[in-house]
Amino acid sequence: MDNLTPAQIVKQLDKYIIGQDQAKRSVAIALRNRWRRRQVPPDLRDEIAPKNIIMIGPTGVGKTEIARRLSLFTDSPFYKVEASKFTEVGYVGRDVESMVRDLLELTINRLKANEQEAVKEKALQIAEERMLDLLLPKPKPANPLQAGPEPGIATTETESESQAATREKLRGMLRKGKLDERYVDMDIAERSTPVVEIFSNVGMEEMGINFKDMLGGLLPKSTKRRKVKVPQALEIMAKEEAQNLVDMEGVVKRAIEKVEQSGIIFLDEIDKIAGKEGGHGPDVSREGVQRDLLPIVEGSSVTTKYGPVKTDHILFVASGAFHTIKPSDLIPELQGRFPIRVELASLGQAEFARILTEPENALLLQYIALIRTEGVQVAFEQEAVEEIARIAEDVNNLTENIGARRLHTLMEKLLEEILFDAPDLKGTKIVIDGKYVLDRLKDIKEDEDLSRYIL
Ligand SMILES: Nc1ncnc2c1ncn2[C@@H]1O[C@H](COP(=O)(O)OP(=O)(O)OP(=O)(O)O)[C@@H](O)[C@H]1O
Ligand SMILES: [Mg+2]
Fold first, then answer.
1. 17 lines ligand 1 (CB under 6 A)
2. CA 268 to ligand 2 center in whole angstroms
3. CA of 18 to the centre of ligand 1 (A)
4. Does ligand 1 lie within 6 Å of residue 405's CB atom?
5. Pocket perturbation via mutation, ligand 1, pick of 24, 61, 268, 344 by most ligand atoms within 8 A of CB
6. Residues with beta carbon < 5 A to ion ligand 2?
7. Chain centre to alpha carbon of residue 337
8. Is ligand 1 within 6 A of the CB of residue 63?
9. C-alpha 75 – ligand 1 centre gap (Å)
10. Where are the domains of the chain?
C-alpha cells in the first residue's frame, strides 16, 4: 500500500468521506511525495523535507476523519494526537517529544505483531512438542552412569520405540481435540506487580525510561503454577514461542527506520495552542508548546528508550477549526513550517444526504444493522433522507454549526422510539418516509429553544 498514486489515495478516501476534494488532494500529494523522495539518489534525498500541511475547517466536516482513514489504509506509521494535550517542557503534563516516542512504540508493536503472525505456524509446532513433553514426560535413564551399551540395549531400544509410538498417538489425539478437556500444570508468567505499575510512566517518560522495563529485568520473573486446559495451554505456549522466535532487535531497527522515513503525525486541534498570550491562567504555556514543537517539526533527534529517532522526514499534518483564531496567530516560525494550507468547506444539505447513505460505513447502514440484530427491518426512503439532510442544515444554521455531527443527534432523536421498542417489534418491517421524519422532528426543529437542547 506504500506506493498508491495520488488518484488511488483519493479514491480510497472517497469511499468514506464526501466532498473535501482539496484536502484529499493535498494529503494524497504529500503522501506520494514520501514515496517519490525514496526514489531520489541518496545525497539529494536527504535534502528533501516534507511539506507539512494545515487543514482548516469548521467543526465536524471531516478533518479528523480524513486522517483516520489515511492511517487505516496506508502502510505508514501513523499517530494522531491532540495538540492541546501538550504542556511546555518543565510543566506537569505531556511534552511534545512524547508523540515521537508514541509513534515509535506503536510502530514497534505493529511490526512485532506482524512478525509473530509470520512465525505462527512454527510457534505452534514448537508448542505442540512442548505440550507432548508435558503430557508424556520423557523417561529419564534409570541410572545415567550405567546407561552404557552393556546389558539393556535391546530393551531401551524397544522402550524408546514404544515411547515414540505413544507420543505420535497422543499427537493425533491432541490434534483431533480429544484432549481438550484435560488439564495440565504449567508455569505462567505473571504481569509485573501492581506496585511498579503505580510508578511507571509518570515522569520518567520524558527521559525515555520506562520503570516497568527497567525493574522488569531486575525483579525475579514471577511465575505461577496453574492448572490450565490443554487448548488454552497450547495457545499460551504458542504465544511464548512466537515471542521467542521474533528478532526484537531487528524489529526495533526497522521500526525506527520506518518512522524516520515514512512516519506521519497528525496534530489535531492545533488552533488550541495558538492565540495571543493574554494571561488566561493556565494558558500561559501555549506559546511554549509551539516553541517546543518547532525543533521536532523542523527536524531533530528525539531520545527514546530504543535509541534516537530523527524527525527530519516525518510528515506533520495539523488541523484545526481556526474559528476565531487564524493560522497567522501561530508563532511565525511555526507558520513557516506548515507551508500547505487547505480549507475544508462547511457542509450543507446535499452533502448530508450523501453522508447518510454513500460511505461504506454510512450512518443509515449503521442504524439498519443495529436494528436488524433485533429482527426488525428498517428501510429509509430517499425522501426521508432528503428531509433529514434538510433539517440538519437548518438546525446547523439556526443554532450552532456542528457539521456532520448534527446527523448523529438527529438520527438518535428520529429513531428513538424504534430503538427503544425494537425488541418487541421482532419480525416487522418499518419504512421511514418523509412524513415520519417530519412528524418526529418538525416541532423540535421549529422551536429554536427546543432544538438547542435536543438536537
Ligand atoms: N465529509 C464527510 N464525509 C463523511 N463523513 C463526514 C464528513 N465530515 C464529517 N463526517 C462525519 O462526522 C463526524 C465528525 O467528523 P470529524 O471527526 O472528521 O470532524 P472534524 O472536522 O475533525 O471536527 P473537529 O474540528 O470538531 O475536530 C465523523 O463521524 C465523520 O464520519
Ligand atoms: Mg477533529
1. yes
2. 6
3. 10
4. yes
5. 61
6. 64
7. 27
8. yes
9. 23
10. 6-112+252-343, 120-139+152-245, 349-446
**Number of other CB atoms surrounding residue 55 within 10 Å:** 29
Whole-model pTM? Answer: 0.77
Q: Which three cell numbers stand for residue 411?
A: 438520527
Atom number, ligand 1, closest to the C-alpha of residue 67: 18
| Any atom of ligand 1 within 6 Å of the Cβ of 20 | yes
Grid cell 539529494 in the structure block, residue: 44
CATH homologous superfamily of 6-112+252-343 equals P-loop containing nucleotide triphosphate hydrolases (3.40.50.300)
Which amino acid does the sequence have at 421? D
Q: Is residue 319 a contact partner of residue 266, using CB atoms and an 8 Å limit?
A: yes
- At position 218, the amino acid (one-letter code) is L
All three cell numbers of 428:
416487522
58 pocket-lining for ligand 1 (C-beta < 6 Å): no
Report the SS3 class of residue 448.
helix
For 222, other C-beta atoms within 10 Å of its C-beta total: 11
Q: Which of 12, 18, 27, 65 to mutate to test the pocket of ligand 1 (most atoms within 8 A of CB)?
A: 65
What's the rounded Cα separation, in Å, for the pair 130 and 283? 59
Ligand 1 touching residue 19 (CB < 6 A):
yes
Q: Specify the residue with its C-alpha closest to ligand 1, atom 29.
A: 405
In 40-193, which ranges are continuous DSSP H helix? Answer: 42-45, 63-73, 98-118, 120-135, 153-176
The answer to whether the CB of 264 falls within 8 A of the CB of 106 is no
Each of the 455 residues of the chain gets a pLDDT tens digit; together they read 568 899 999 999 999 999 999 999 999 998 898 889 889 999 998 888 888 999 999 999 999 999 888 888 888 899 999 888 887 766 666 788 999 999 999 999 999 999 999 999 999 999 999 999 888 877 666 555 554 455 545 555 677 788 888 889 989 998 998 888 889 888 887 654 444 444 444 445 544 455 555 555 555 567 788 888 999 999 999 999 998 899 999 999 999 999 998 899 999 989 888 876 544 545 556 788 888 899 999 899 999 999 999 999 999 999 998 888 888 888 888 888 899 999 999 999 999 999 999 999 999 999 999 999 999 999 999 999 999 999 999 999 988 899 999 999 999 999 999 999 999 999 999 999 999 999 998 877 777 777 777 76
Residue 300's CB is within 10 A of a number of other CB atoms, namely 15
Classify domain 349-446 at the CATH class level: mainly alpha
